[in-house]
């Protein structure tokens, strides 16, 4: 189970997911963020430039309203429909698809909450974009949940319980990291059960043969009874 | 030190030993034993007495008594239970909590009566497999039941220790991950601070009122 652990490696790596952004005004000295920008041509990133930034880097800008956010393509509407239909290779898109998707949903929620509050104060009426982003975030969350708890979960359970001692690489290579942890927990319990059935019912038999080797470590010739002996 | 026969092996790497622990807990279950000695006040030769399973095994190993199988551990009782498990959607409640572990331990030694321990063991194994299969198929339904609950819980009447040990870790992990995916972002920190009248400058979005300084193009 994922916990709110600061050092959780999967959560850290999931935040490497690139988020498409659009700048709301000029950014000084950040022209290198634009992949189409020729080096040395400009020293600033013009307003309206589209670029991609990891989740961990864009969160503060999003809450301050510096950028407009959107979902990556493999979390978009068409990709979600394919995922819900079970036709998509989820791991190929992102090894930590579910964790990254959840993180993106949190980012969008935070972004819309902060920006909406500021725009309401300033009397800005263009809230349609924010409503659209909120709907996308809710649908993303629903897709993640249905993909995780649907047929994939049942298949993972079946494989975990019935493949003790078998090579399961063919199945696990299509699982995300979260699902691999789930598979491991089930497989560990199943293998423990099998091991107990084979080894756990034997009687604790008393030892019948002993090989004793008596070696003298420091023989005391004057007092034979004080010989120190090591038994192995 | 060499032993004539292999003794109990510890769980290998990659196993959590949960079945071994459950088996150890099952040894506290009381079973009937007929002692061959008299030691007042508990033991009188030929008089059945209830003792924990670990003590009963000790007495039988030392030829100081013999264990009497529980009532439910007979072919006449187990066959109808197996039939019931195959036909009913719910788990039967007529088996004890440690039925699987007790069967494995009690049928692990030869008997001096007509009881065939192998048949009993196979019957209980079939019952176990049918129950696990039922739980496996109802697993998505259990998850759906817990959808609206803040603290997910599900009541499965009749579930036994062996099924819990086998399916419990997977279910717990799945529930935890599901709760993680359901978790809503808490964006109300600033809202709460505003209600208290505190300044919420940090993190407040801004829109530039004047054009920013532009570099020469």
UniProtKB/TrEMBL annotation, chain A:
InterPro entries: GINS_bundle-like_dom_sf, GINS_Psf3, GINS_Psf3_sf, PSF3_N. CDD domains: GINS_A_psf3 (cd11713), GINS_B_Psf3 (cd21693). It comes from the Eukaryota. Gene3D superfamilies: 1.20.58.2050. One of its GO terms (biological process) is mitotic DNA replication initiation. It holds the Pfam family PSF3_N. GO terms for cellular component: GINS complex. Residues 7-57 form the DNA replication complex GINS protein PSF3 N-terminal domain. PANTHER family: DNA REPLICATION COMPLEX GINS PROTEIN PSF3. This is DNA replication complex GINS protein PSF3 N-terminal domain-containing protein. It comes from Fistulifera solaris.
TrEMBL record, chain B:
The keyword Nucleus applies. SUPFAM superfamilies: GINS helical bundle-like (SSF158573), PriA/YqbF domain (SSF160059). GO terms for cellular component: GINS complex. Residues 72-144 form the GINS subunit domain. Keywords: DNA replication, Nucleus. One of its GO terms (biological process) is DNA replication. Residues 188-207 are annotated as: Disordered. InterPro entries: GINS_A (IPR021151), GINS_bundle-like_dom_sf (IPR036224), GINS_Psf2 (IPR007257). It is found in: Nucleus. Residues 188-199 have a biased composition (Basic and acidic residues). Belongs to the GINS2/PSF2 family. This is GINS complex subunit 2. It comes from Fistulifera solaris (Oleaginous diatom). The lineage of its organism: Eukaryota, Sar, Stramenopiles, Ochrophyta, Bacillariophyta.
């Amino acid at each position: 189970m994922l916990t709110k652990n600061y050092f959780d490696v999967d959560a850290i790596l999931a935040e490497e997911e690139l988020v498409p952004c659009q700048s709301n005004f000029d950014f000084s000295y950040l022209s290198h963020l634009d992949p189409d920008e020729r080096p040395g041509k400009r020293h600033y990133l013009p307003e309206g430039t589209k670029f991609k930034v990891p989740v961990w880097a864009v969160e503060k800008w999003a809450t301050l309203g510096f950028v407009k956010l959107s979902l990556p393509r493999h979390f978009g509407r068409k990709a979600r429909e394919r995922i819900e239909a079970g036709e998509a290779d989820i791991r190929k898109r992102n090894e930590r698809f579910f964790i990254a998707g959840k993180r993106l949903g949190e980012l969008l929620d935070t972004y819309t909450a902060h920006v909406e509050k500021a725009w309401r104060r300033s009397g800005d009426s263009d809230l349609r974009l924010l409503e659209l982003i909120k709907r996308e975030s809710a649908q993303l969350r629903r897709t993640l949940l249905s993909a995780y708890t649907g047929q994939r979960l049942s298949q993972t359970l079946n494989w975990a319980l019935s493949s003790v001692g078998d090579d399961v690489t063919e199945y696990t290579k299509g699982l995300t990291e979260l699902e691999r942890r789930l598979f491991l927990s089930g497989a560990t319990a199943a293998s423990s059960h099998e091991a107990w059935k084979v080894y756990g019912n034997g009687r604790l038999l008393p030892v019948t043969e002993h090989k004793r080797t008596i070696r003298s470590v420091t023989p005391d010739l004057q007092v034979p009874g004080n010989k120190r002996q090591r038994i192995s | 030190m060499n032993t004539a026969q292999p003794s109990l092996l510890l769980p290998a790497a990659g196993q959590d030993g949960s079945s071994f622990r459950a088996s150890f807990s099952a040894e506290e279950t009381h079973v009937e034993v007929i002692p061959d000695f008299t030691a007042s006040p508990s033991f009188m030769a030929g008089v059945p007495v209830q003792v924990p399973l670990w003590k009963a095994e000790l007495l039988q190993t030392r030829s100081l008594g013999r264990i009497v199988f529980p009532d439910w551990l007979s072919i006449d009782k187990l066959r109808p239970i197996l039939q019931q498990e195959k036909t009913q959607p719910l788990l039967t409640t007529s088996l004890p909590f440690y039925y699987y572990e007790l069967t494995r331990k009690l049928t692990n030694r030869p008997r001096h009566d007509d009881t065939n321990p192998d048949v009993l063991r196979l019957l209980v194994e079939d019952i176990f497999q049918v129950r696990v299969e039922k739980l496996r198929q109802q697993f998505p339904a259990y998850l759906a039941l817990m959808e609206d609950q803040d603290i997910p819980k599900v009541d499965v009447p009749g579930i036994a220790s062996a099924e819990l040990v086998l399916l419990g870790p997977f279910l717990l992990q799945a529930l935890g991950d599901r709760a993680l995916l359901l978790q809503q972002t808490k964006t109300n920190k600033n809202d709460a601070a505003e209600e208290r009248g505190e300044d919420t400058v940090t993190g407040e979005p801004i829109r530039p009122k004047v054009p920013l300084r532009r570099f020469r193009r």
